[in-house]
Amino acid sequence: MEANAAGVEVLTDSECWNCLRAVSVGRLAVALEDGPDIFPVNYTTDHGTLVFRTGTGTKLAAVQADARVALEADGVDSEAGVAWSVVIRGGAELVKLPDDVLETFSLPLFPWQGGRKDQFVRIIPETVSGRRFPVVEPKTWWTPESSATHSAPE
What we know:
This protein is 23% helix and 43% strand. By secondary structure, it is α+β, with helices and mostly antiparallel strands. The chain has a single domain (9-149), classed as Electron Transport, Fmn-binding Protein, Chain A (Pnp Oxidase, Chain A, Roll).
C-alpha cells in the first residue's frame, strides 16, 4: 500500500477487518430524531459483520427504529509510531432467530459496564474504510506562534 506525502495509507477492506479484529472497543454513532449520539461499545467481528450487546436505551431504540449507524475503532502501535482508524457504516439489526442468538452467546463479547445487556445487535456494513498513519511528535505540530492564535480572548 502506498502512502501519500503525509505518510497516510488507505487500508484495503482486508486490512480494515484485520485492524477491527485487533481491538474490541469502538464508538457507535447513531442518528435519531433528536440528533446524533455516540457510545463506546465492546464488539466482536463475526462473518463480515460486527456484533455488540446492549440493553434498553438509546442504542436499542436506534436499532429498533432502523436508524443508520457507524462504528469507528482505532489503535496505535507506540513502538512503531503508527496509528490506524477504521469506520464501518451500515444498518443494524437485533439478533432474533433462536439459533442465531445461541450462536451469538458463544462470541467473545465482554461488556465493560455492568447491568443487563441481553440484546445482541449485528451491524451489517455497507461501507468499510480505514487509514494508517505515522504518529507525529507534538513538537511537529505545536509552535508558540500557533498557540498565540488559539489563545482565549481577553
